[in-house]
Amino acid sequence: MLAVDAMPNSSSVSMSIWLPYGSRNEKPQHRGFFHYIEHMLFKGTSDKNARQLARIFESTGGFVNAFSERSATCIHCTMPADNWREACRTMLDMAFLSVFPAEEFEKEKVVIISEILQTEDDPEESAHEHFFHRFWPGQTVGLPIAAQVDEVSAITRDSLYEFYLTVFRPEFACISIAGRFLEEEAVDFVERLLERIAACRRAGPLLGSRDDGLLASVPAVAETFRLYEKNSSSLSYIIHGIQTIPPADNRAYLSSSIVNEIFGGSTISRLFQRLREDGGLCYTVFSSYEAEKTEGVWIIHLQTSKKQLPSALDMLEDEIARFAQEPPSPEEYEDACSRMAGLMKLAMDDSEYRQRRMARQYFAHGSIESVEQELAQLGAIEYDEIVLAAANVAASGRARFVFGAVPQAKLMERGYLEYDAH
Question: What's the pTM value of the predicted model, to 2 decimals?
Fold first, then answer.
């Protein structure tokens, strides 16, 4: 899949290459492979070493990066528009013609283990990892994306490279480009590069089939609970999670996003105004909504002190209950729609935003709509739709988790049980 978005007045070009699978698709013997591959894409191709690859982007003021998620793996770059062809060629080589030098593989293993240990030392990161492990128990989607130290330690260069050759193939990818270029020229240029890559791979190691290395993405099965976990952190981290069916289309996704804006998506949201501004109970509080083809997930996140935790929990529960009893007002609905439309308009000049949104839409809904089409969809969403969507979210089953500095007696009074992550 190739998606292009020409921006004649832009000074940049942004490109991303997405594979529609991540840690949730890893078999037990492949735990941590996608995250490890993400690192190895920067370590050398058939004609360039790691420094030469980095220099192509950094020497012009551009940047290149990558990330792995539960359901996707992506490498992306942004460059001055005059350099887009060289960046495009290099990105495709990194994604599909990397060679995984043995010495780089061993050095990067140390780096990845350090990254995992750093995450374990971060209480906020640990809180979310422990929450999802309990939210989706016994399922790969609930496991840490980077895997555990012992799992990474056991990975060999040959097994990782064989997996990469099997799974990282152009025919499975979405390539998304936005910025200043001629659309027909960009399409022709990328297609010719992909033909070259196909010829190089045919002449290289024998490829397996896609099914040899992946688990299918199936809807996760979420649990509801009230649990707490003690930690040496000086703060308490409150995480609530709700799983819903995935949005049927982009309009449904936008409706849920409006509800999120009203509830906890900005500083004028109900959560921020009540718990931060009125209550003074926390520094950080927000909600988020993310959707995959398999499920939608709402997360509420709050950080507070051990002393303020009981009051913060009670006020949070009150706000969630109020969301069901007092639907969003017309003013809240109008503010949320206006804010989302404004953010889209401000981002229209951002080539990175435009290429990412195309890939996300394609993976979520199988189609891509322009920013103008999406703005029209947003403007067509009625107030009554948002009232109904908000009521559905507020009435959904919820997982409640507290991590960090906890007053155990106060939590037990509120129905929380202690959770041993081990």
Answer: 0.93
